[in-house]
Automatic annotation (TrEMBL), chain A:
SUPFAM superfamilies: P-loop containing nucleoside triphosphate hydrolases. The keyword ATP-binding applies. This is ABC transporter ATP-binding protein. It holds the Pfam family ABC_tran. GO terms for cellular component: membrane protein complex. One of its GO terms (molecular function) is transmembrane transporter activity. Residues 4-230 form the ABC transporter domain. Gene3D superfamilies: P-loop containing nucleotide triphosphate hydrolases. Keywords: ATP-binding, Nucleotide-binding, Transport. The keyword Iron does not apply. Belongs to the ABC transporter superfamily. Macrolide exporter (TC 3.A.1.122) family. PROSITE patterns: ABC_TRANSPORTER_2 (PS50893).
From TrEMBL, chain B:
The chain crosses the membrane at residues 259-283, 303-329, 349-371. GO terms for cellular component: plasma membrane. It is a multi-pass membrane protein. Belongs to the ABC-4 integral membrane protein family. It comes from the Bacteria. This is ABC transporter permease. It is found in: Cell membrane. Pfam families: FtsX, MacB_PCD. GO terms for molecular function: transmembrane transporter activity. The keyword Disulfide bond does not apply. Residues 20-208 form the MacB-like periplasmic core domain. Residues 263-378 form the ABC3 transporter permease C-terminal domain.
Length: 231, 385
């Protein structure tokens, strides 16, 4: 059963004269607990597609349904609540807040929830344990390695146990050993029931997913299993 | 982890930026506190000095007619159906509710004498009070200290050629001219000033007073209130406020206050601009971070709250340190602006006002940057997803 559905989704940037179509009328459906990789050349539109699926960028045309809810039909604050409750994000270049230590960064999505301080701390500690960084909880981001920063970013994305995880080039700044560790971690999270949508350049990393979707020139081409291209 | 923890952590770990932000507002707050405190202290000092400078209330006997004038005011002493002010009434003046505001009470007795073809008005005064009242008098020689000594106005001295011959006979009594007033440009120039009891005896007015000039400290009390209280205590007298003097003093003080307010507003405006520019720069610098907050589910109001909490914390620091610095600057200013250090009490209301003002200005100046931050598009801000 489809959990995330993109119906005829398109995104255009710029005004009339300089209009650029980043994504052209894509149809896509992702099942619950599925792990998919989106691959493509730079500028193919894969990150734009991920942003639209993640509720960060409203499409110019079409709709995105998650659990049957048209997320861009929600008001801005409700969409923010939806992201907080149902989505976790792993950004390229880690995107940790430099003045917060590791455990504070992990607790960030919980800052505006109704959990007690003790519960927030327990959840963050538990998330750090899952990524193997409990002992570095009080270090600042610049005091840990790139691989560790990526794992902190993953802990932050999963701290409130959202059902969907969006990852944009999670291994883009890591060496092969750290990349492999991160991919194993994502695979494990997926096996625990999390739906994962990941953008990557690396075929090797993409193959950790259940399905690979290839995007080229704003259009979608699927592999494993293959679905008809939208354009 | 709550929103205020994010704000506090940001401030704690960006000490340099916080320092510049605090300094921007601190200078404004310190300037406002210094200007306000200095103005208030100087205002009180000036008001005190001005209140001592000449009379602002005149007490004359009630009468049915007007005949002679003194200082542009009618004197009942030469009118018909005249009621008298007795010497005992002087004591009553110090018993009114606002007695603390009565600074100088200068009773006077008037008499006329003629010599060498010139008629002159003799004014019996209490020299201690009169000299306190008329600080602009400059005396060649000395002020009279003994009952048989007199003080002549400049013109009176010329009429009676008293300067070279320091003895003057008035109604058969010899008086020693202790001093001569330098020209005042007023009718004082033509008067002869004499010790009060001596003049009462000389003109047969023992126990009576012709007029009383009063200097009341009225910065914080309505002069009309004092006039009313005096009228109740002295039913046989007519008590009049010298309106032009009172209003002139109040105008001077109001102008001084307006000037201070204008400068304060200007300095605050500059301070708020500094906060605005710094906060705006800070928001632009933190675009990615704000993008993260937004992406992970912070509402617009959450992001605004973080920015405004930071602004409030910085403003609070600036308000407190600005107040202390302002007081320091005030002390320094007063050593230059006054001959003596006036009475200086720390006013907790000013401290509270400074902190409140700093927080208010800080928040207002940060409102637009906070709104801008809250409106940032998360994907635009991150530029990665």
């Amino acid at each position: 059963m489809s959990y995330i559905v993109a119906n005829q989704v398109a995104k255009e940037f710029g005004d009339k004269e300089n209009k650029v179509s980043a994504v052209r009328r894509i149809d896509l459906s992702i099942a619950q607990s599925e792990f998919i990789s989106i691959m493509g050349e730079s500028g193919a539109g894969k990150s734009t597609l991920l942003s639209m699926l993640g509720g960060l960028l409203s499409p110019s045309k079409g709709e995105i349904l998650i659990g049957g809810i048209n997320i861009y039909g929600l008001k801005r604050d409700k969409l923010a609540d939806f992201r907080r409750e149902f989505m976790g994000f792993i950004f390229q270049s880690f995107q940790l807040v430099p003045y917060l230590n590791v455990i504070e960064n992990v607790q960030l999505p919980l800052a505006v929830t109704h959990y007690s301080e003790a519960e927030k701390k327990n959840l963050a500690t538990s998330a750090l344990e899952r990524v193997g960084l409990k002992d570095k909880a009080f270090r600042l981001p610049n005091q840990i390695s790139g691989g560790e920063q990526e794992r902190v970013a993953i802990a932050r994305a999963v701290v409130n146990e959202p059902p969907i995880l969006f990852a944009d080039e999670p291994t883009g700044n890591l060496d092969s050993r750290n990349s492999e560790e991160v991919m194993k971690l994502l695979k494990r999270l997926n096996s625990e029931g999390q739906t994962i949508v990941m953008v990557t350049h690396s075929r090797r990393n993409a193959e950790h997913a259940d399905r690979i979707i290839e995007v080229a020139d704003g259009c979608l081409r699927e592999t494993t299993p293959v679905r008809a291209a939208a354009c | 982890m709550k929103l205020h923890d994010i704000a506090v952590n940001n401030l704690r770990r960006r000490k340099g930026k916080v320092f510049f932000l605090v300094m921007g507002l601190l200078v404004g707050v310190a300037a406002v506190v210094a200007l306000h405190t200095t103005t208030t202290i100087l205002e009180e000092d000036i008001a005190h000095k001005m209140d001592e400078f000449g009379a602002n209330i005149i007490v004359t006997p009630k009468s049915e007619g007007l005949s002679l004038t003194y200082g542009g005011l009618s004197l009942g002493g030469l009118s018909f159906d005249m009621k008298e002010i007795s010497e005992a009434d002087l004591e009553k003046i110090r018993t009114i509710e606002n007695a603390a505001n009565i600074r100088i009470v200068s009773p006077k007795v008037f008499g006329v004498f003629e010599k060498e073809g010139h008629k002159a008005l003799v004014v019996g005064v209490d020299f201690n009070e009169e000299l306190s009242l008329k600080k602009w008098w400059k005396i060649t020689g000395d002020a009279p200290e003994k009952p048989n000594q007199i003080l002549l106005g400049k013109e009176a001295a010329e009429w009676f050629q008293a300067s070279p011959v320091p003895l003057l006979e008035i109604k058969g009594e010899p008086f020693k001219v202790a001093g001569v007033l330098e020209s005042t440009g007023s009718q004082d120039d033509g008067l002869v000033f004499m010790n009060l009891p001596t003049s009462q005896k000389l003109f047969g007015k023992q126990g009576t007073i012709g007029m009383i000039e009063i200097a009341a400290l009225c910065k914080n009390c309505p002069i009309s209130e004092i006039v009313s209280q005096l009228s109740d205590k002295l039913p046989s007298a007519k008590v009049t406020a010298v309106q032009q003097v009172v209003e002139g003093r109040m105008d001077t003080l109001h102008s001084f206050r307006k000037f201070s307010l204008g400068i304060s507003a200007l300095v605050l405006l500059v301070g708020s601009m500094v906060v605005f520019v710094t906060m705006m720069a800070s928001v632009n610098e933190r675009t990615r971070e704000i993008g993260i907050f937004s992406a992970i589910g912070f509402r617009r109001s959450h992001i605004m709250k973080i920015i405004l909490l930071e602004a409030a914390a910085v403003s609070l620091m600036a308000g407190l340190t600005g107040y202390l610095m302002g007081i320091g600057v005030t002390r320094l200013l007063l050593t230059f602006l006054t001959d003596h250090m006036p009475k200086f009490n720390l006013d907790p209301l000013v401290a509270l006002g400074a902190v409140f003002l700093a927080v208010l200005v800080g928040l207002l100046a940060s409102l637009y940057p906070a709104l801008t931050a809250s409106r940032m598009d998360p994907s635009e801000a991150l530029r990665t997803l």
